[in-house]
Amino acid sequence: MSTRVLFPRAGGTEGREVAALLRDINGEPTGGPLVVGDARIRDFLSAMSKRLLRADLARRHPELGSLGFFLRRAELTRTLGRLHTTDCNLRRAPRGLVLHFPPANVDTIFVYSWALAALAGNRNIVRISSRSTSASEAVLDALEDVVGDAHPAIGETQRIVAYDRDDVVTAALSAACDVRVMWGGDHTVSALRGFALKPLGRDLAFPDRSSFAAISLSGWSAADKGQRAAAVEGFANDLFWFDQAACSSPRSLFWVGDSTGRDKARDVFAALLAAVVERRGWHVDPAMAVEKHVATYGLAATGAASHVSFSGNAIANVELADLSAVQRTWLGAGTICHLAIESLDALVPAIERRDQTLSQFGFSSTELEDFVTALAGRGLDRIVPFGQALTFSGIWDGLDLVHEFTRMISIQA
After folding, report:
1. Where in the chain is the domain with CATH 3.40.605.10?
2. Fewer CB near the last or first residue (10 Å), C or N of the chain?
């Protein structure tokens, strides 16, 4: 019953018995126990930010730039500010040991939840998938580069491990943790919930979610060429990063407003998007292209789509029949399901609790606030501009994570 320790590598990456792993991480760290906002953790995460923002890494893995920005010292201070309370009788404390199960399809998500849990003063064990790709390997290398100059408490309280599917290991780790963070599909979350926690242990679950995009036709008409180009550039990132498989990747694109000028707007949008894809050198391999053809023409066969067209292998455009055909399943990287609606209010009946992010362009704050009011809690946790759908925030799926990783202690003298 062992795991491979991927971070820190000081002791080698050979198998480590779970009992020994837990004994190591539960020991008293050098310099005393971790506390909420611990300076040792902040220094380490800040150094990690600088490493991720280096030009050589950013060129190879652009998505790591967002992670580096998230870990900047100023951002960490802002995050900790959300824990501030004016009640002098309340103190925040770490929850203890946090166990993370990140998804394989979003390589870097494990760093976000782990960093917030560590910032809150917790000891952490992160189990990453053996299917993780080059971006996660780059993160592990960066962590190793930085930990050598970090306070010894970092290496003593933080672990990233890997192991093949092993229910005995998962059960032992789950039974030892105070918080279990589960990312992945509904099936994965349900399976992990089958492993018991401590009586006071708690789960944070991030199961299957779906996301959309929307363009205000009046906002598009009012925008200048530079604003339109920037919007499409951002949409392209939202669409192609992580092969459009992340929970916040848009699956459908709603064209909202009067039909006048809609066809022209779509033509301009399509041309700008094709130019971004060509400039970035993005391509879809033949196997993925076949999968997209099967999935999209399958929609046409069932009547969910009225028209399907392809722009090379990279982009598939699907015209949805109506709101009942809104797509929440993954259809392949670079697939856009289009639907014209008169207003955001028309979208309200189609929104479900599992819907997470609406990325948008051209709407006013008032329009978006009125839309949220009309939703009345039926769905959506985030509304963000184009280009920020995949930008992780400390408030995710409606939860303030740094709050979730701490507990309140009331003090009365």
Report:
1. 2-208+397-410
2. C
Residue that is written with structure tokens 């184009």 in the block = 386
Superfamily of domain 2-208+397-410: Aldehyde Dehydrogenase; Chain A, domain 1 (3.40.605.10)
pLDDT at 107: 64
Share of the chain above pLDDT 90, in %: 80
Token couple for 293 = 């053809």
Taking the C-alpha atoms of residue 381 and residue 164, their distance in angstroms, rounded to an integer, is 33
Residues 79-90 have a mean pLDDT of 88
**Residues above pLDDT 70, as percent of the chain:** 98
**pLDDT confidence tier of residue 216, bands split at 50, 70 and 90:** very high
Q: Where in the chain is the domain with CATH 3.40.309.10?
A: 210-385
| Backbone phi, psi, residue 379, to 5° | 175, 175
Tokens 């929970």, located at residue: 247
Q: Within a 13 Å sphere around the CA of 201, how many CA atoms are in the beta-carbon half?
A: 19
Which residues are within 8 A (CB) of 371 and not within 5 positions of it... i.e. 6 or more apart?
Answer: 344, 345, 347, 348, 383
Nearest Cα to 316, choosing from 299, 332, 305? 332
Locate 381 and state its tokens.
């946790």
* Distance between CA atoms of residues 16 and 22, nearest Å: 10
**Helix or strand holding residue 18 (H, E):** helix 18-25
Specify whether the CB–CB gap between 347 and 366 falls below 8 A. no
Please state the pTM of the whole predicted model: 0.89
- Return the structure tokens found at 53: 């923002």
265 phi, psi to nearest 5 deg: -60, -40
> SS3 of 305, please?
strand
Please give the average per-residue pLDDT across 189-202, as a whole number: 96
Neighbours of 90 (CB within 10 A): 11
The secondary structure of the chain in percent helix, strand, coil, rounded to multiples of 5, reads 45, 25, 35
**Local confidence band at 61 (pLDDT 50, 70, 90 cut-offs):** confident
Mean of pLDDT over the chain: 93
18-25 and 167-176 helices, crossing angle to 10°: 20
Q: Which CATH superfamily includes the segment(s) 210-385?
A: Aldehyde Dehydrogenase; Chain A, domain 2 (3.40.309.10)
